[in-house]
Amino acid sequence: MSIFSAPKIDCHCHILDPVQFAYAPDVAYRPQGQETGSAAYFAQVLRSYGFAHALLVGPNSGYGTDNRCMLDAIVRSDGMFKGIAVVPNNASADLLQALKAQGVVGIAFNVALHGLAHYADIAPLLQRLADLQLFAQVQVDAPQMVQLAPLLLASGARILIDHGGRPTVPLGPHEPGFQSILQLGATGLAHIKLSGWQKFSALPCPFADTDWVFTELLNAFGPTHCMWGSDWPFLRATQRLDYGPLLNLFAQRVPNAQVRQAILWDTPRRLFGFGADAAAQL
After folding, report:
1. Are 254 and 211 in contact (CB under 8 A)?
2. Which CATH code for domain 8-274?
3. So where are the chain's domains?
4. Planar angle of CA 110, 200, 140, nearest 5 degrees
5. What's the pLDDT tens digit per position in 48-75?
6. CB pairs under 8 A, 24+ apart, for 273-281?
7. First vs last Cα of the chain: how many Å apart?
8. How open is the CA angle 102-95-57, to the nearest 5 degrees?
9. How far is CA 99 from the centre of its chain?
10. Per residue in 175-188, is it b (16+ CB within 10 Å) or e — as a string?
11. What gap in Å lies between CA 198 and CA 218, rounded to an integer?
């Protein structure tokens, strides 16, 4: 079966619609032009490439902790979308429960952007996520994981690592932060997104210097703990990126059809509770 016709779930993407949902006044970056995209347009993109579902991620750019745009996309999607929200570090259990009721499956912690000090007080929030069976989705630059991993493991929260852990590619697989990420994979308690190669590669697509990263992550986490994401609409991209070539890159790196199905479909459908009949909706 062609990768374009096989059932799939995109596990990292953003909706940015400043026409319908104005950006928050205090955000540091305000995406414009081709960095934006409405929910309706993104649904067309997904259907064009044979995707039944997507996991939307609330962007720090544009919206910060304002999740209205993402939540509106979820409620209007007839089950196509679920989401990862951005909340203050002191978010209450009631707020988290309300977000969960609206299709949110986790909370994002962008350590790569805000730094470790910004999240020094998140232990109580992580505990609330654990109690509600919500994911703690972390985007780090790999060296930050040395300090963060013990906190994540101690919390009991479900761990979801963004963008392959953003390794420091020139330092290779033995860099301590990347080793911390591989060790999380070995515990069986964490999942990882095979996505965002442009964020840490020094080369244009197909990001040949990250081949070893893909292999190491897949071996450490296994297909039952991996998922794929496009990162659409490619915020702050320094090079041209397109949906189709990124999907083809994944197909080239995973020639085994059963492993591809696990990563693109079985694993995210199980983890995030997307409908069992989703493939029939394409």
Report:
1. no
2. 3.20.20.140
3. 8-274
4. 25
5. 999 999 999 999 999 999 999 999 999 9
6. 273/82, 273/105, 274/9, 274/52, 274/53, 274/79, 274/82, 275/79, 278/7, 278/52, 278/53, 278/79, 279/7, 279/52, 281/52, 281/80
7. 15
8. 55
9. 17
10. bebbbbbbebbeee
11. 18
Give pLDDT tens digits for 15-26: 999 999 999 888
Residue 275: pLDDT band (50, 70, 90) is confident
Interatomic CA distance for residues 271 and 224, integer angstroms:
10
Question: At how many degrees (to 10) do helices 176-187 and 145-155 cross?
Answer: 20
Interatomic CA distance for residues 65 and 69, integer angstroms: 11
- From the number of C-beta atoms within 10 Å of its C-beta (0-12, 13-18, 19+), residue 158 rates as buried
Q: What is the dihedral of CA 231, 202, 119, 185, to 10 degrees?
A: 80
Helix, strand or coil, per DSSP, at residue 65: coil
Residues, the chain: 282
From the list 22, 115, 101, the residue with the least C-alpha distance to 64 is 22
Pairing relation of β-strands 158-161 and 190-194? parallel
Read off the pLDDT of residues 84-118 as tens digits, 9 standing for 90 and up.
Answer: 999 999 999 999 999 999 999 999 999 999 999 99
Query: What pLDDT score does 266 carry?
Result: 98
pLDDT tier for residue 279 given thresholds of 50, 70 and 90 = very low
Query: Per residue in 262-273, pLDDT tens?
Result: 999 999 999 999
Contact 128, 96 (CB under 8 A): yes
